[in-house]
Design goal:
107 residues; mainly beta; Rieske Iron-sulfur Protein; four-stranded antiparallel beta sheet; 11 strands; globular
């Protein structure tokens, strides 16, 4: 079993409440969301098409893709509305007072 390290994505202050924020790092595009004081991270590129989830419409814990209007739960990555069918990869956010940090598996 591999050990997890951490990856700092951005400052918490960079991500407005009830908004998405795109971070490009380590060859990935990630969407960071800030809802009710909590932060959630998932892949930014929709599993259904070329939509950017960080640019989608956030309603509570539900993000609607800006491309085909499919939806996902930002907490789990599960599909909540078609046409999307494949869940999104999510990342565990590490508790930190200032930064958004995720657990990152070491190769």
């Amino acid at each position: 079993m591999s050990e997890a390290s951490t990856l700092t994505l951005c400052k918490k202050s960079d991500v407005e409440e009830d908004e998405g924020y795109k971070v490009d790092t380590e060859g990935l595009s990630l969407a960071v969301f800030h809802v009710e004081g909590e932060f959630f991270v998932m892949d930014d590129l929709c599993s259904h098409g070329p939509g950017s989830l960080s640019q989608g419409y956030l309603d509570g814990y539900n993000i609607e893709c800006d491309f085909h209007a499919g939806c996902f739960d930002i907490r789990t990555g599960e599909v909540t509305a078609p046409p999307c069918m494949i869940p999104m990869k999510t990342y565990k956010v590490v508790d930190h007072p200032e930064d958004v940090i995720i657990e990152w598996p070491e190769s």
